[in-house]
Design a protein that fits this description.
The protein is 33% helix and 25% strand. By secondary structure, the chain is an alpha+beta fold. A three-stranded antiparallel beta sheet has the order 1-2-3, with helices on one face.
Length: 83
């Protein structure tokens, strides 16, 4: 399959995990996946195949980015694999 056809038959999934819903929030991670929409994906398939970047939280905090107590509480209640 030619490269152009491979790209044309895919969907780009972008996921940002953050510490707030505000615009200047601290970003925990960014994930990207070029996925075939015809394939059935399990959650672990998505996690394994995605390109994920973890972002320096301390540096963001020092530059004025914010977190929200209710969002941090929500994260603490999530399954460990999601954290």
């Amino acid at each position: 399959m030619a490269k152009k056809e491979w790209i044309m038959n895919k969907e780009l999934i972008v996921d940002f995990e953050t510490c707030s819903t505000e615009q200047r929030t601290i970003i925990l991670s960014m994930s990207f996946l070029c996925a075939d929409p015809a394939k059935e994906w399990s959650f672990m398939d998505l996690v394994d195949e995605a390109l994920t970047f973890r972002v320096d939280i301390v540096e963001q905090n020092l530059s004025g980015r914010i977190s929200d107590k209710s969002t941090l509480k929500w994260w603490s209640e999530q399954d460990k694999i999601l954290q």
